[in-house]
Design a protein that fits this description.
Chains A, B: Residues 87-305 form the SUF system FeS cluster assembly SufBD core domain. 2 copies of one chain form a homodimer. Chain A has 307 residues and is mainly beta. Chain A has a domain at 4-204. Chain A has 3 helices and 21 strands. The first copy, chain A, has helices at 4-14, 281-289, 294-306; strands at 23-28, 31-36, 41-45, 52-57, 62-67, 70-72, 78-87, 92-102, 109-119, 124-134, 141-143, 146-151, 156-165, 169-178, 183-192, 197-206, 211-221, 226-235, 239-249, 254-263, 268-277. In chain A, the strands form 2 sheets. In chain A, strands 1, 2, 5, 6, 8, 10, 13, 15, 17, 19 and 21 form an 11-stranded mixed β-sheet that branches. Chain A is globular, with a radius of gyration of 20 Å.
Amino acid sequence: MLDKIQMQMLTEVADLHGVPEGAYNIRVNGEKAGRNTTANIDIATKTDGKSGIDIRIKPGTKNESVHIPVVLSESGIKETVYNDFYIGEDSDVVIVAGCGIHNCGNQDSQHDGVHRFFVGKNAKIRYVEKHYGEGDGSGKRILNPVTEVYQEAGSYVDMEMVQIKGVDNTHRITRAELAEGATMIVHERLMTHGEQVATSVYEVALNGEGSSTDVISRSVAKDTSEQVFEAAIVGNSVCSGHAECDAIIMDKAHVVAVPKLDARNVDAALIHEAAIGKIAGDQLIKLMSLGLTEAEAEEQIIGGFLR
Amino acid sequence: MLDKIQMQMLTEVADLHGVPEGAYNIRVNGEKAGRNTTANIDIATKTDGKSGIDIRIKPGTKNESVHIPVVLSESGIKETVYNDFYIGEDSDVVIVAGCGIHNCGNQDSQHDGVHRFFVGKNAKIRYVEKHYGEGDGSGKRILNPVTEVYQEAGSYVDMEMVQIKGVDNTHRITRAELAEGATMIVHERLMTHGEQVATSVYEVALNGEGSSTDVISRSVAKDTSEQVFEAAIVGNSVCSGHAECDAIIMDKAHVVAVPKLDARNVDAALIHEAAIGKIAGDQLIKLMSLGLTEAEAEEQIIGGFLR
C-alpha cells in the first residue's frame, strides 16, 4: 500500500490517481510496490544481476499503455535502474515513466534511470517522462536519466520530457538511432529555480533513408539556476532534421544552448534555431493592465510558454 | 620588385593591381617587399623579437586605408606573423589584409597570422581579409589566422572574411570583446573543395551595456572537403547577439555547425539559426531550362550564394 505522500508523487509524475489500467510497474524506495501485466505486455524483473525490468510488447499491440512510475520518499536513497523496452512490430502504445522524489531529510536522494527502447518495424510509441521533486530537507533531489532509442524502419517515436519543479540536479542524456523512414519527435519542457542545475543532451543519428527528427526544447531558468542544452543531429543519409531551443531567462540565471548540426551526406537537410531572452516587457504590461500583479503575469506567461 | 605571380596573388587577396594608395605593408616570402606610411597611419616593424608589424592609426583619422597583404610564392615557407592594430578614437578606416599562397613545390607553405585590433572609443573600421591558394605542387597551402578584437565603447567593426579557393588546411579563430555600445558585424564566406579541411571558430563576448553582434557565415563544401563552423556568443550584459550559418553541401563533403549561445545576464537576447542542405533541385532545373549545363547552373547558384 502506498501512503499519502507516495500517492501524491504518483499523481505528479504519472497523472495517476490510483492504480492505473493496463500494464504497470510501480517502484517505491527501491522496491517493487505493484505490478500488472496483460496478455500483450509482459513485465519481468531483470535476472542478470542489474536492478530493473524488461518490458516486452507483443507485435501488433494497439491502444494499450504501460506505466512505470518511480517514487523516492525516503531520504538518502541512491539507485541506478535499467529498464529495457522491446516494442513489437506494428504496435501502437503509450508508455508513461517518471520519477518523483520527496526528500525531507538531509541526505541526497538520487535516481538514475537507464532506459533502452528497441522499437520494431512500423511500431509507434508515445513516451511521457515527468520528473518532479519536493520536500524541505537539505538533501538534494538528483535525477540522471539516460535514454537510448533504437528505431527500426518506419517506426515513430514521440517523446515528451518534462521537468517542471523541484529537481536540484539533473544530467539528461538522450541518444537515438533511426533506420529508414523512422521518425523521432521530442518535446522537452524544463524549468529550473533556486540553485538548480540542469544539463540536457540529445544526440540523434539519422542513419536510414527518409528518416527525420524534430527536437524542440522550451525552458525557463529562474533565480540563480543554470541550464545547458546540447542537441546534436547527425545526418548520415537522405534525411531531414530540425532542432529548436527557446529559453526564457530570469533573475540571475544562466542558460547555454549548444546545438550541433553534422551533415555527412549530400542529401541531409538540417536546420536549427535557438533563442534566449527574457519575458517581453509589453507582454507583462498588458497582463498587468488587466489587473494581474507582476508575479502573476510572469506565471501566466511562463505557464503558456511551457504548456 | 614583385614578379608576375606575386602581382597576381596581390590582386586575388587585396584587389590590388599595383602599389596601393595610402598606408601599406607588403610582405613577400617572409620579407618586407614594400611599405608606405602616411601622416596619420604609422607602420613599424616589431622590435620585441617577434616577426610582424605595429600599425598605429591616429585618433580622428577618416577615410584612409591600410593594406597589408602577404604573398608566399616559394614552396616550404612556414611563418608566424604578429600584427597589432592600434586604432585611435573616432577614426574611420578601411584595413585590407589577406594572404595568397602560390605553391608549385612539394613542401608545405604555411602562414599563421595573429592579428590584434585595439579599437578606440567610437572608432569605426572595416576589415577585409581574403585567403587564396594556387599552384599545382604536392605541397600543401596552410593558413591559420588568429584574430583578436578589443572594442572600446561605441566602436564599430565590420569584418569580411573570405576564403574562396585553394587553401588546403585552415584553422581560423576569431575572438572579440565588446565594451558598452560596441558593435561587431562579421560576414564570412568560405568554399572548400578537393580534400580541403576548414575550421572556423568565433567567440564574441558582449560585455558592455548595449553591445551587439551579428555573425553570418555562408559556406559551400564540395568534393570530399570538410568544414567545421563554431560560433559562440556570450551575453554578459544588456546586449543582443545573432549568429547565422548557412551551408551548401555537395558531393561527399562533410559540414558541421556548432553554434553556442551563452546567456549570463537576464537582459541578454541571443538568437541563432543554422541550415545545411544541398542546392535546391528546382533552382538547378530552372537555370538548366535557360540553357545552362548542370555544372554551369551549380556555379551560378554558388556564386550568388557566396556573393
